[in-house]
Design a protein that fits this description.
Length: 450
Amino acid sequence: MSTPKDRRNFLMQGAAATAGLFATSSVLAQKAETASSSGDYKGQGGEYPRLHPGLGGPVGSPTDRGKLVPGLRQPGLPPVPITAPDLTTTSGKMVDGVREFRIRATPVRRELLPGIWMNAYGYNDQFPSPVLELNQGDRVRIIFKNELPEPTTLHSHGLELPTYMDGVPFVTQNLVKPGETFVYEYDVHQEGSFFLHAHVAMQEAIGMIVPFIIHPKVAYDPVVDRDFVLVTQQFSMLPDADIPNTQSMDWNFITANGRCGPFTTPLVCKLGERVRIRFINFSTLHQHPMHLHGHTYWVTGTEGGRIPESAWIPGNTVILGVAQSRDVEFIANNPGDWVLHCHMFHHMMNHMVSQVGPIIRQMENKHGSKVPGYPQMMSSAKWTPEEMHQITSRRETQGMREGWYHGVHGLFTLLRVLPPELYDKLMTTDDPIPPNSSAPLNPPPGSQTI
Ligand SMILES: [Cu+2]
């Protein structure tokens, strides 16, 4: 796991790698014109409202829908470290100039929802794996130990490396048997949102993915203040089972970073920041059109790395094909709690049960309750107070609208865009924050249903 010392070293290396290049960059001059943390952005190419929604400059201009508006972070710093809600991150350890990670393939139990546990495979006893962070240009060494009861390998998806490091059983290497260790080592010249995974279909279907984020030598321009990772997966875990059926062509749980909504932990940022979200889809069968409310983002990267600015696409829904990654960026200039979810309707459920409509209504009448079991009993409406407490007691959810969790299911999480004072109170103190502190932030008079 990443220790504070590891993280400091990682940041220092990044700073050393980038400082010289930044000093000669014309980006610096442009950043100097950036507005302070309050007020609109006024810089080269026009204006953009940082604290409220707005189009910015004309289509095609640098401030068009916030396209090239930088974050509030000072220029010249190394890339901002990854935030992966519900996962850990590590930048490994530098050993004789090589960035070294120790990865163990392990059985793991994961609580997808309060009280609903899945037995799966992961790495370093986590599910999904810790997120690995490294720098473009690193030589990386992955000391990979197999602690599973079956053979496996570790494939580096999309990396341009020597074939004998590619981790494909039989084609490029022998299987790594239980208890054995294999060392993967190669130079990394790419940058972007990559991932490693087992290269055996049944093991992939039971969750074996390692997010592998390669930061560029020079922080991308425009600079972001937040860099989130969300890994999407799907599983078929039928009633009375706690192991996903990896042969199934069906599914009933879809996860973001190993949890289902509303147990997913919200992404939290400050109003006015530039935010990047890196989506990685490691689902067995399905695309996920990931939709963000209240904002327009630009699609800035794929599993192949950064997209040139001229080819960025604006939108609010980006399709993640299986084994694809997509990076999106935007200025979080619309305060409030915004859902971020897959828009395939059956992916907005847990256990294939909608939280609205006839099934739920049936549950609430005395006849429906005579049929216990699947799927009637599978609803947040049936959670115990202790299980509900698991949902509502998390710090990142404090201050949201009361009962918010009834509207968040399946491949669903939230982006919370908070005024700086509320953000600081939430994330840097333990002060109680009453419900309805953030959403709606400013309900216009008469806007409520009567
Ligand atoms: Cu989906």
